[in-house]
């Protein structure tokens, strides 16, 4: 069945860089399937490039942690009021919420009260914390579009209409990129040992994690044969700040920092030192063995520990429901500890192969490409039914 082009106006809401990336793919699919649809809302450069009228863009100022987020509240409150006003004065045929649960759950409630259908794409991670949000979405959402296979039964058990569409990274990660091609693009020796550094996409992450990673590289750089080190810079990271941290690191070896090639770094590396987040799942899809690390403020740690319901934080472990990759967190995160775990993966082919085998199983369970198109079809069906 063709979705048609009678969807009218659709309001979308994405508040972080990853949501903007996936929202951009969704917007492109919506424009392709419904040429007459008008897209407006909150998002960033990817959604704007895909044809959405951006009313407000908070994506360049994302932070991590509870205490760190306080500075964003005034801007997010203004964005919330703007979107609520749009729901009231120019009701869309549907509201599409993309991740960003704390903000979008409130917006979904207001849309429901206004009689606007709500489709939630990349829904709240109820399997990790605050499972009661599933019952809220059962009341206010027309449809939840799950991105992990285990989410669908959880949401359905709470009474929420839910379909598993697959993870949107399947549409954005170059799944065919192999190690040889990645190294060619990066100018790396095909036979070298390669250590990749991925310190995150937010300023706070980089400043907390990169110095520890650099301490680890100083230890790893003493090994023979000497590894090559390459750092993947996220688009939102200030290169000058990263260069200053590298220059100030005592004993750190030469590190090549590359922009716009994080997927190449993931595919090329024998081991990755990576900040917990979406990058861990991207790296797993590309088969990159990794050590995951993370550190937040003590306030954020206390809040998180009081709410979290699972023993892992990295997506490969969460999806596998077991410890596939090592996680080094908070006070346990030191340069020597990080270096020891990385060295084990560099020198123990069984350990690296075990990760790659688990990643292959993970990839097979995440669905198939075409996620954005399937999500767009669901959104347009909801909009037409309004």
What does this structure look like?
- The chain is an alpha/beta fold and 386 residues long.
- It has two domains: 9-172 and 369-385, Rossmann fold (3-Layer(aba) Sandwich), CATH 3.40.50; 179-365, Rossmann fold.
- It contains 17 helices and 13 strands.
- It has a seven-stranded parallel β-sheet, with helices on both faces. A six-stranded parallel β-sheet has the order 10-9-8-11-12-13, with helices on both faces.
- The radius of gyration is 21 Å and the shape is elongated.
Which range does the strand content fall in? 15-25%
The geometry reads as elongated
Number of self-contained structural domains: 2
CATH class of the largest domain: Alpha Beta
SS-derived structural category: alpha/beta
Radius of gyration: 21 Å
Q: Helical stretch count? A: 17
Q: End-to-end span in angstroms?
A: 18 Å
Low-confidence region ranges: 1-6, 63-68
The amount of helix comes to 40-55%
Strand order of the largest sheet: 3-2-1-4-5-6-7
CATH topology value of the largest domain: Rossmann fold
The CATH level-2 architecture of the largest domain is identified as 3-Layer(aba) Sandwich
> What assembly state would you assign to the polypeptide chains in this entry?
single chain
Number of strands: 13
> Mean pLDDT score, rounded?
92
Q: Which H/E pattern describes the elements?
A: EHEHEHEHEHEHEHHEHEHEHEHEHHEHHH
CATH level 4 superfamily of the largest domain: Glycogen Phosphorylase B
What composes the largest sheet? 7 strands, parallel
């Amino acid at each position: 069945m063709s979705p048609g082009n009678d969807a009218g106006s659709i309001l979308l809401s994405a508040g972080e860089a990853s949501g903007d990336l996936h929202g951009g793919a969704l917007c492109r699919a919506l424009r392709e399937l419904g040429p007459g649809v008008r897209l407006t809302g909150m998002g960033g450069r990817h959604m704007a490039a895909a044809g959405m009228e951006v009313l407000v863009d908070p994506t360049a100022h994302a932070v991590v942690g509870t205490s760190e987020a306080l500075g964003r509240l005034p801007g997010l409150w203004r964005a919330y009021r703007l979107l609520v006003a749009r729901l009231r004065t120019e009701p869309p045929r549907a509201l599409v919420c993309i991740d960003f649960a704390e903000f979008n759950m409130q917006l979904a409630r207001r849309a429901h009260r206004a009689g606007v259908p709500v489709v939630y794409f990349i829904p709240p991670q109820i399997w990790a914390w605050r499972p009661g949000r599933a019952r809220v979405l059962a009341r206010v959402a027309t449809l939840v579009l799950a991105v992990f296979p285990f989410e669908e039964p959880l949401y359905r058990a709470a009474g929420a209409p839910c379909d598993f569409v697959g993870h949107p990274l399947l549409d954005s990660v170059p799944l065919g990129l192999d190690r040889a091609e990645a190294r060619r693009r990066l100018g790396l020796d095909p036979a070298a040992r390669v250590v990749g550094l991925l310190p995150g996409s937010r300023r706070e992450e980089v400043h907390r994690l990169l110095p520890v990673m650099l301490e680890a590289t100083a230890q790893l750089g003493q090994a023979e044969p000497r590894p090559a080190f390459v750092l993947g810079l996220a688009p939102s990271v200030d290169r000058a700040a990263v260069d200053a941290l590298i220059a100030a690191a005592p004993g750190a070896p030469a590190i090549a920092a590359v922009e716009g090639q994080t997927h190449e770094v993931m595919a090329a590396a024998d081991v990755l030192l990576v900040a917990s987040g979406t990058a861990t799942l991207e790296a797993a899809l590309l088969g990159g063995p990794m050590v995951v690390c993370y550190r937040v403020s003590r306030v954020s740690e206390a809040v998180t520990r009081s709410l979290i319901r699972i023993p892992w934080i990295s997506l490969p472990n969460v999806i596998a429901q077991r410890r596939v990759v090592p996680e080094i967190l908070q006070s346990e995160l030191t340069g020597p500890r990080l270096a020891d775990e990385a060295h084990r993966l560099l020198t123990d082919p069984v350990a690296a192969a075990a990760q790659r085998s688990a990643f292959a199983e993970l990839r097979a369970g995440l669905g198939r490409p075409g996620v954005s198109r399937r999500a767009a079809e669901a959104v347009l069906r909801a909009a037409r039914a309004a």
